[in-house]
Amino acid sequence: MVEPGFQVALVSGAAAGLSVDVALFPLDTVKTRLQSAQGFWKAGGFRGIYSGLSSAAIGSAPNAAAFFCTYETVKKLLGHHLPGHLDPVCHMTGATCGEVVACVIRVPTEVIKQRAQAAPHDKTLQIFRRTLRHEGFFGLYRGYFSTVIREVPFSFVQFPLWELLKKTWSRRQGFQVDPWQSSICGAVAGGFSAVVTTPLDVAKTRIMLAEANSSLAKGNIAHALNMVYMEKGIRGLFAGVVPRSLLIAMGGAIFLGVYDKAKDTLTKWTITEHS
What we know:
Helix content: over 70%
Distance between the termini: 18 Å
Largest sheet: none
Structural class: mainly alpha
Number of strands: 0
Strand content: under 5%
Radius of gyration: 19 Å
Mean pLDDT: 85
Shape: globular
């Protein structure tokens, strides 16, 4: 397969991010409300299921573009220096670097989005202004490290598994997987990764929704995990696991399928333009 250039990864990643975030936003709202300290119904139940969509839509394209540009660049650089049997190391390292960079964009939009989801009567702009007024600029980065701690293990599992499934399927059928096959591989990889990292997602949600100056607001993920466990036990640590795993399985199918489709289309177009 021809490795995508920077511009191809940028545009393909943006298309993938916007597609998945807009398509699956209602399920993400349900997951957030299930994980909130006040409980699903008090957080809004099924009312205002699209609360916070504007924040997610604004951040999704640049967030995904930043991730894939970093992922493809690191994967390509390492791939030139490491033997083929160490490809998973390239994928893990690329995904880790991609998440650290992408979270700079993702966390502010995630903070506003989740607060809007948990308070459906408030407007997104009101929440943004209130956050800046009471917590300052760094309030937008509440939970940055807990988000990175959640996302890195997730991508550490998802992307090597996605690449492995694609490689195995390609080898069995004798030619490179089509985008729809990549989509199925993305669903399997995403769903599995979502289940095993749910406790970290619960902790991240609690930190982002915590009152300013509370113990949770300090962003200590171990403290958040312990507090959830003391309140609700193992079940609390896996709150929202079903909608989360379904969300991310479907998200993996859309996200990685759209990415590969856009990447293939743009790569072929670029080759044609320069031939």
